[in-house]
Amino acid sequence: MVNHGKIQDSSNDNLVGEHKGDLGLCGWFLVILSFMMVIVTFPISIFMCVKIVQEYERAVIFRLGRIPDKKAKGPGIFFILPCTDSFVKVDMRTVSFDIPPQEILTKDSVTVSVDGVVYFRVHCPISSVANVSNANFSTRLLAQTTLRNVLGTKNLAELLSDREGISHSMQAALDEATDPWGIKVERVEIKDVKLPQQLQRAMAAEAEAMREARAKVIAAEGEMNASRALKEASMVIAESPSGLQLRYLQTLNTIASEKNSTIIFPLPIDMMQTFIQRK
């Protein structure tokens, strides 16, 4: 990948270098002739020579099919020769577009439909004009293929839980691929992941079963803790028989405060112990 990027950069430099080459004797003759025509037809020709670009725009000037300067013109006023020069306006603002829903087969053989949004801008006007015919359209197509390629290496669980990591991976891949075109990818976001209906029902059943299992485990842990607490309480009462009598009186007080119509009084523990000893 690194060698490939170096080859692309070197070819990009060569392409721009060709545009910066000398116009030649015939080219300079045409330029001088055009300049003389501007002088002769002045001030009418001034309306054809003066051009204005906005703050967010840049103008890439072609003189006899070549780019004469190292950088684009603007913002503000610039001059062109009407017969030999032409220019292309490039919008430098951030542009966003939606990635259409893509049918993707994940690593664990699950078919999902995923869409997203991409934010990018032009950082090199000359490269965006000279190295690609339509930078915006090419970036849109590349975003669709990159989305399928990146998500094809992920499992369904990773796709649902690690959207931020997937977005960063897509941004890095797109930014590297569009750098020779003068495009800077600023942000990539996964908007929606649509699962098949059968898979949704299966995942819902699995989640419900997990919740039920967790509830049973919590209930069992509660019963175990309660039994341990009762065991400790019984050991304390066994060490102090008067504690059982106090607990008995406390229970009667609780029953009396609830305003029940029928109250059942259990037999005193001392009487029961007497019968048990005789038996």
TrEMBL record:
Domain of life: Eukaryota
Predominant localisation class: membrane
Record field: transmembrane: 28-53
Pfam family name, one: Band_7
GO cellular component: plasma membrane
The entry's keywords: Membrane, Transmembrane, Transmembrane helix
Protein localization: Membrane
Band domain ranges (all copies): 48-207
Recorded family membership: Belongs to the band 7/mec-2 family.
Protein name: Band 7 domain-containing protein
